[in-house]
């Protein structure tokens, strides 16, 4: 890029614009892959702890719907993002091989390379060209795969954590049994649960006194608090492992999207798809990260609503005090940040798109002048 910039012509500037998305993507892949190597035990602990949290045995219809919906959405995300990145690989890396096939069929076409590298020699000489093409193809593969692994791990971790927050909210709503009466109508969610609970546990309801109920609520509440603390800690581990990479991601995303848009409008022809596919992948990648960050915010905030919607008013004073303390803690949302600078959410995605559009319009106006 520095060598190209010394030319000073507009064509040299266009070449730099074409390099910028590739350079930005390479930096992102490096930032997301190095911690996976140096902090492998943390990743293994995240996997093991989240696996151990999954419910075993029979679950309610509400819990089954939460689990099946989360896994279904996660499967769509993994499949879609995986094939989107592989399509980008094919579009970026296939043109040189297409030109080689044309030459083998007798057509007079020039050789090309997937990426714009500066070499102190002619890269299109025999042997040199084959070696460079193999090296650039390998560079493209590992860059996309490193990016793919980092993004999908982030999405998978947050998907499992948010699912556990949603399941915990269900347990909280069912913490205290409240008999259905004129105050609690059976059509309310709490009333529906309590009716089902009364049918399945009639012996407990008939035999438990106030002390027995308090002991049961205390045990259940202790388990809920321990699970909540574990989820907050795991969310902190995800932030520690990914926050620096996310800072680089969000810093580069605006630039990458801007230069991809410029290349789509100015450099590429209408029927060429290299930078159009690049921009589509960059937009979808940033949206996925922000969407899962938003899900973490919403699911963690949902615990305070679940506590208020539970039958806490029928519990003992000791349980009410514990619920109040947990309610104050649950109102402090759990989130992932870009190294402490901003919270990852859909608002961050809006900011990135606005910034990219501002850069793009500025660059386009400079080009027109």
Describe the structure.
- This protein has eleven helices and no strands.
- It has one domain.
- The longest helix has 58 residues, at 210-267.
- It has 369 residues and is mainly alpha-helical.
- It has helices at residues 2-5, 10-38, 40-53, 61-104, 128-173, 189-200, 202-207, 210-267, 274-309, 317-330, 346-368.
- This is Odorant receptor.
- One of its GO terms (molecular function) is olfactory receptor activity.
- One of its GO terms (cellular component) is plasma membrane.
- Keywords: Membrane, Olfaction, Receptor, Sensory transduction, Transducer, Transmembrane, Transmembrane helix.
- It is a multi-pass membrane protein.
Distance between the termini: 24 Å
| Helix-strand string | HHHHHHHHHHH
Structural class label: mainly alpha
Q: Ranges with pLDDT <50 over ≥5 residues?
A: 1-10
Q: How large is the count of helical segments?
A: 11
Portion of residues within helices: over 70%
| Overall shape | elongated
Question: How large is the radius of gyration?
Answer: 27 Å
Roughly what is the average pLDDT, rounded to an integer?
A: 83
Total strand count, please?
A: 0
What percentage of amino acids are in beta strands?
A: under 5%
Biggest pleated-sheet summary? none
Task: Domain count, please report it.
Answer: 1
GO biological process, one term: signal transduction
GO molecular function: odorant binding; olfactory receptor activity
Pfam family, one: 7tm_6
Family: Belongs to the insect chemoreceptor superfamily. Heteromeric odorant receptor channel (TC 1.A.69) family.
